[in-house]
Amino acid sequence: MFRPAKALRLMAAAALLAALTPSLLIVPAAHAATINVTTSADELAVNGACSLREAIQAVNLDTVVDTCDPSGDADTIVLPADTYLLSISGSDENGAASGDLDITSALTITGALSSTTLIDGGQLDRVFDIFGGANVTLVGLTIQHGDSGLNGQGGAVRNAGNLTLQSSAVISSTAAEFSGGGIASNGALSLINSTIAGNSAHTGGGVENAGALKIDQSLIRQNASESSGGGIASLSGTLAISDSSIISNTSELGGGIRNSGKLTLADSLIAGNSGEIGGGLANDSAELAVLTNSTISNNIGSGIDNFGALNLAGSTIITNTGSGVFNDVQGAITITQSTIAHNADSGIYNRGGLTLTNSTISGNTTQIDGGGVANTGTLEVINSTFSGNSA
Question: Percentage helix, strand, coil, to 5, in the chain?
Fold first, then answer.
């Protein structure tokens, strides 16, 4: 028999349990807001419209700015197809009130398509300045005509946070006195199905990396730097490239890539770049650089100039105007199951340590000695083929 006194005791116990375990109470969930930009004008006026600058300020401050209403969580700003020209001049401030668009909070900005949704810096300043601790994703955008002037690195984008650029482009920007004509990053940067093109800087014409950079299914094209890294200058940290093309970039050192950190490159193309040292790639890192299943071709200068440690596997080094591979006295290279062919100044010029295994060296030429391999260092050859080389 279920007695009333027992029922009362059960009810009291349930009430006590609810009081002691507030996590069981139903609390309204916080939802990320979608902020729709309604004007392409660069403005901060209270006029019933939501501009891109106002939307970013609203997210940074977690408060309503004009009609831009954030949630406090990871918000999304949606940009209709249009050109968003930055026109409020003034630099060296960190509140997105003038010049570049400063981002200090978690945010996604989504455009219609990179071909139709353009954010234009108008050479006033860089376009985006992403602060440490901010997780930012940019999708379906073209970021163009940024100029960092005397305000440091990053012609179009300066990143100290965690930035993902997806299905987007960074073009026609400059950091003439600094590094990272397109993007300068000392945070985490991922480029996915994106293009970095036509940018220029003193160092790292396309991208300058001093953090963690991942590039996948992307194109780094026709960027230029005065000193090093026409396409990419990875001065420290890590650089991982897969299924991407680094083409037609120029620099004195490392026309395509200059690497001083930890490099992995797979299933990629480095072609048509130009550099006095390392037309395709200049590697001067003490950390092992690993290149697999890739092609380095038609570069002006050597395909690879190596001053560090490098493993090359399953790859093709072909028709470069300098040596296919130049390995300096401090360099150590292992080449496995690769083809070095039709290079104009020796297939391999080795002054350091070289191990060549299951590879083919063919059709290379030189005006001096060693059409296939010119060696003044330490050389070990295992089961490899030499044919049609001339000196």
Answer: 10, 45, 50
